[in-house]
Amino acid sequence: MKTVIISAISFLTLGCALGASAQSKAKPDPKMGVSDFDLKRNGDRLDIDMALDASKLRMSTNREVVYTPMIVNGTDTLRLSSFAVAGKNRYYSHLRGDNNTKDPRAFRAGEIAEPITLDYQVPYQAWMESARVEMEARERGCCNKFGPTLYVPIAQIDLVPKNFVAEPIYVTPQAEAVKERQINARAYIDFPVNKIEIYPDYRRNPQELKKILATIDSVRSDENLTFKSIHIKGYASPEGSYTNNERLAKGRTQTLADYVRNLYKFKRDVITTSYTPEDWAGLEEYVKSEAAQRTLTNPAGILAIITDPAYRGKDDAREAAIKTKFPKDYQYLLAEVYPGLRHSDYAVNFTVRSYQTPEEISQIIKTAPQNLSLSELFVLAKSLQPGSKEYNETFDLAVKLYPNDPVANLNAGTAAMMRGDLEVAKNYLSKAGDSTEADYARATLAAIERDFTKAQDIYKRLPQTPQVQQAEKQIQTIQENAGKHFKLLNTEI
Fold first, then answer.
1. How does residue 7 score in pLDDT terms, banded at 50, 70 and 90?
2. 399: buried, middle or exposed (CB in 10 Å: 19+, 13-18, 0-12)?
3. I need a labelling partner for 9 at 20 to 30 A (CA). Which of 16, 247, 379, 418 fits?
4. Is the Cβ–Cβ distance between 252 and 237 less than 8 Å?
């Protein structure tokens, strides 16, 4: 170990008895050096080692100095075992074990050729994390009377973990010029076999038509929304001929559009339509489901037919193959699954007015968060206390409403990183795009996780902004101080 010499603690050697007064003034003795000081935490134990060069210390025959190392932090103090450097008479008194000299170790001043080695192992306590090591030096004369006591700091303990402290960068989302929104829903309108006419009171039609009208009314009645248009897409199920299914899907979709248009007196261009003659995608989704695995006898075989490229453009042959090869399963599909494939999907399109103040936005977030833009959510977040529950929830809501938006993911990832939720942050940042800010956030996450090599590789590629420079300097400082647990406080005492 490299020896470090600092000036030591020493005291006056008095040439005469201390007498009744404990206030006698001291003259400087030669100095005692402290070398090879080391301190480290070893699990639940704190180890302190040091060597003291007392070769030049001198004491009058009836004098000694009792040294007691201490660990001190405010009102918390742990005194370690003492030792004494004594003049001739006091030293022999230690050897005889006189009652007034019970210190465990004593050394005779003027005859200490080798360094005094001290080795302490004590139970670690939390308050020691930033405590100091001090040396108490107490003079003692004849008749066991104590003189002045000095306290000299030797080292400042620093066992606080050297963690990387992130400097967050949030990106302001671009404001939407026009906030266009859409409500998507599905209705199951019942038509008599092979018919395209709507009967409002037929089977479940009252409830299904009511759903469509309620969606339209919810937009038209909201003063914050401006109704624009509706799109209806109709689907038929695969049974029967493709030609007939195309006729049914097209005709039924147009009938539903006309019904809604006439009810609200909409202009013709307000409602647009499209159709899919046979909903094979819906059938494929069902066959892949857990319910199908429990119910069908051969879902894998049916799925193979549905996805077989040989049947592309030959839907009648595809349906016949399922019916022929798996007749029992086909009957189940026909009765239980195909009715659900006859549906009308509709989208109600509208615009939403802009919200300007955090107070206004905080009210909308309680009732209609889907009508808020990313930029509006960011306005609200900036008004909240960073790290607060509401602050974090705002960024999480933004990425929930806009799951594929890079800025939403970047800001949510940064907020998660700052609250210490690193796995969530990692997931968000994987979808944050390749912007400079996203790379900075990923580098910062790596630094927090102490992957300094990865962090530095990314930082080096980024523009040298103050945040990047501060991060690189911080990493350098952490690496340079790795393993250092204390700082010597004095070079001369």
1. very low
2. buried
3. 16
4. no
Whole-number pLDDT of residue 193: 81
What span, in angstroms and rounded, lies between the C-alpha atoms of 222 and 218?
A: 6
The structure tokens listed for 51 are 């060597």
CA dist., res. 211 & res. 228, Å (int): 18
pLDDT in tens, 341-385: 999 999 999 999 999 999 999 999 999 999 999 999 999 999 999
Tell whether the model's pLDDT for residue 174 goes beyond 60: yes
pLDDT at 12 over 50: no
**Strands 344-352 vs 225-235: parallel, antiparallel or unpaired:** antiparallel
Q: Of all helices (H) and strands (E), which one includes residue 487?
A: strand 486-488
Find the mean pLDDT for residues 463-475: 94
- Residue 16: what pLDDT? 34
Q: Say which DSSP state 239 is in.
A: S
Separation between Cα atoms, residue 178 and residue 156, nearest integer Å: 61
Query: If 0-12 CB within 10 Å is exposed, 13-18 middle and 19+ buried, where does residue 191 land?
Result: buried
Residues 28-78 have pLDDT tens digits of: 456 789 988 999 888 899 999 999 999 999 888 988 899 999 999 999 999
Consecutive H or E run containing 55: none
Cα separation, 286 vs 329, whole angstroms = 13
Q: How far apart are CA 450 and CA 437, in angstroms?
A: 20
Q: What is the DSSP string of 388-415?
A: SHHHHHHHHHHHHHSTT-HHHHHHHHHH
Separation of alpha carbons 279 and 300, rounded Å: 19
Backbone angles phi, psi at 383, to 5 degrees: -85, -5
At 486, give phi and psi (nearest 5°). -160, 165
* Contact (Cβ atoms closer than 8 angstroms) between residue 246 and residue 252: no
**Pairing assessment for the beta strands 132-140 and 146-157 based on DSSP bridges:** antiparallel
- Per the CB < 8 A criterion, the answer to whether 321 and 311 are in contact is yes
Residue 102's pLDDT is 60
CB burial class (10 A; 0-12, 13-18, 19+) of residue 384?
middle
DSSP-assigned letter for residue 309: G
Q: Crossing angle, helix 299-307 and helix 280-287, to 10 degrees? A: 150
Closest-CA residue to 273 (of 245, 254, 251, 260): 254
pLDDT tier, 17 (very low <50, low <70, confident <90, very high otherwise): very low
pLDDT tens figures, 91-126: 888 888 765 556 678 999 999 999 999 999 999 999
Quote the CA–CA distance of 55 and 385 in Å, as a whole number: 61
Averaged confidence pLDDT in the chain: 89
Give the SS3 label for residue 381.
Answer: helix
Q: Are 407 and 173 in contact (CB under 8 A)?
A: yes
